């Protein structure tokens, strides 16, 4: 059995190791410093927060309000756009943290700084933050310096041993995905997966209108369907992977409604209006026809209150399932086969030897067991037998998070036929 936390972090794994194979030849990297950093972070977490994780509480909880939720955007945390040499990337939530100095303004961030900012500013659960940051460092960062980049590549701490880390910009189809919230599909935009595509943002913006506009979870679930449909209809190389598509891109849509909403005293349950939506995506303009995207200018609004409850890995799971139940097509695994509107969904029974199928995918933990099996199936080929670094990180996460998360009891999937994905050019070429 493996933890939900380990699984969710594996959303980055299989195709990422293909993109960065040279990392995996460093088999003797000592992760004791990472272990100590995780221990140090966990030691500073309030006991009541860890108790909530143990109880497996989800977002079905009472909305509360406290002035302590107000996020400081003054002084050292005043907004400043990136300057020359500072990197920003595909994730608006990470960009705002750098633009306000909660992340290093360079865009290259340490483990401790990352976890601290994600939990204190956005109220990401400590379990989610540790899992995702640890894997970001292992796959697209520098495991010696314990750093990673929210955007482009940066120099390695030991150039003769470790290659130049690629950052999130280089992780398309590994972590960042086709059919994302506002960024473009790689094939359609010459590899630019970090810029907002204004037409996509306008489609989201138009889903609400007037002074009462509120971009709720239901609105973002509709947008999830729309972005998926657009990629099917326009991108001949659209590929929707078990990890980067089904899990990461779907979760990213849900994140917008939860993390960017203003949870004020008047609206403790959260309210995301058009002004704040534009601010978090670096958009200016008063009407839909005058909207302009300004690269790297994502900003936390004044008088903005974070969500009252940490967004745990259990919440990630729950809201992904809600999205798929509302629009079952976004739960398909597959892609276009070289022409638009040619989407072929892989038969999950053929893929898993009949253990997981379309009828039982959404039952219990099966959707995550399925993705875990996909990761395991891809490891021997992807890693060419060199598994020490990633395996050690995987085991480390299991050990550190085990006391705080429920284990997954998964059915045994003894075969996983990854060759079924070879029919999709978006799988074989990106």
TrEMBL record:
Keyword Transmembrane helix: no
Domain Heme haloperoxidase family profile: 75-318
Keyword Metal-binding recorded: yes
Reported cofactor(s): heme b
Family per similarity comment: Belongs to the chloroperoxidase family.
Keyword vocabulary terms for this entry: Heme, Iron, Metal-binding, Oxidoreductase, Peroxidase, Signal
Superkingdom of this protein's organism: Eukaryota
Listed GO MF terms: metal ion binding; peroxidase activity
Xref: InterPro entries: Chloroperoxidase, Chloroperoxidase-like_sf
Pfam families, alphabetized: Peroxidase_2 (PF01328)
Protein name per Swiss-Prot or TrEMBL: Cloroperoxidase
Signal sequence, renumbered to the chain: 1-19
Organism annotation: Sistotremastrum niveocremeum HHB9708
PANTHER family: HEME HALOPEROXIDASE FAMILY PROFILE DOMAIN-CONTAINING PROTEIN, STERIGMATOCYSTIN BIOSYNTHESIS PEROXIDASE STCC-RELATED
